[in-house]
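Risk mitigation, structural track. In case the binding assays with protoporphyrin IX containing FE fail to produce interpretable data, a predicted complex structure has been prepared as a fallback.
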Amino acid sequence: MASPLQDITSHDTYVSGVPHESFAYLRANDPVHWTEETDGGRGFWSVTRHADVLMASRTTEIFSSRLGIRLEDMDAEETEARRTLMEMDAPEHTRLRRLVSRPFAPKSVNAYEDAVREIAVQILDSLKGRDEFDFVRSVARELPMRMLGRLLGLPDDDLEWLVQRGDALIGNTDSDFTDYVVDQVDTSDYRLLPFRSPVALEIFEYASQALAERRLVPTHDVLSALLEPTADGDTLDDLALKNFFTLMVAAGNDTTRYSMTAGLLALIERPEIYERIPSMTIEERKSLVEEMLRWSSVTMHFRRTVTQDTELGGRELRAGDKVVLWFTSANFDESHFESPDEFRADRAPNDHVAFGLHSPHLCLGAHLARLEMRVIFEEIVARWSTVELNGPPERLRSNFICGIKVLPVKVTWR
Ligand code: HEM
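Fallback model:
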């Protein structure tokens, strides 16, 4: 097989879509592949097979998150200042995760279904009378944003401002979202801030105020819950609270938005599945969402750092090496999934790694994201008898997040 390898580290590569052929080539020929970095980084191992991604995600004592979960190399000072739940290993990670996980557990999330549906209905009904719009702007961006606002107890009027700032962080490689594009302008003044962005300071300030208000008058939202000590009296300090708030604004919005959008595009391309949704059972609709998650693989990779010399996929890895787990590749691994290039609404089993399967870092928002996706599609099919593409989709410039940032659609209302 001739090498079809594209530059998988370049943000520009992803503007025209995920380079699936490159990943297929690596899985077949060099599944743990030494990859040079185009922006001066020290290089890293690309792990592309499902089994190896799973193995590394589970073995956190060898594949550590402490030195960073993105490609970027940070010095000790930066690493410390920017540490969130994601950049921790046990026991620090276990402790913090215990402090924040209750509102995101399946039982808590199931109780949000009515709220998610109410917001979904509002969003879709507000579009009545319009046949053409950008699905991302009008629908997919709105639901996660408003639901997060509801969970955190924030006023609706603040949400647009807040989500723009979250987008500037996660979209820090795309000039549509930020003036501080990390690989294009000098961001060294902001190197101690999340995503090397001054926008993080604005989110910190907002979080401090919201938390101060709840210290004075406790409310019934997730933020107040985070201020409460656990049964053994453990609490979060101020920096941890602000970092966690920022993590939720950044990680809890665009990921669900882009998964919904890729899901709708898959259905537009397969109208026979779209038409079947109203008669699907709830379990079948849940399977459909899982396939959308596998298909979209919105967080394309997470990085680890090797703590001791080890072997993976037949390669010798040295302590200190950077290892990138390509979730987007694992989800299309032909040695694991039958016909991975087919979108199968009823795929079973479907042990995709879109949320980081079997890892202590398994996405905290997974149940919420699944719920929002199922509900929005249930409400969409109840309203639109057809939906088609009304212009070319536009993609985020990022090697980290696979995002369709504009999806022009034309719909027929029932
Ligand atoms: C479809 C949407 C989503 C996708 C694809 C996604 C993906 C992921 C992945 C792959 C991880 C694991 C990171 C690692 O292994 O280092 C993760 C972690 C995390 N996610 Fe999500 N996420 C989504 C939605 C959300 C939402 C809605 C929230 C919050 C409201 C959220 C909050 C988090 C947090 C806090 C972590 C860190 C967990 C830890 O380190 O223990 N995510 N997410």
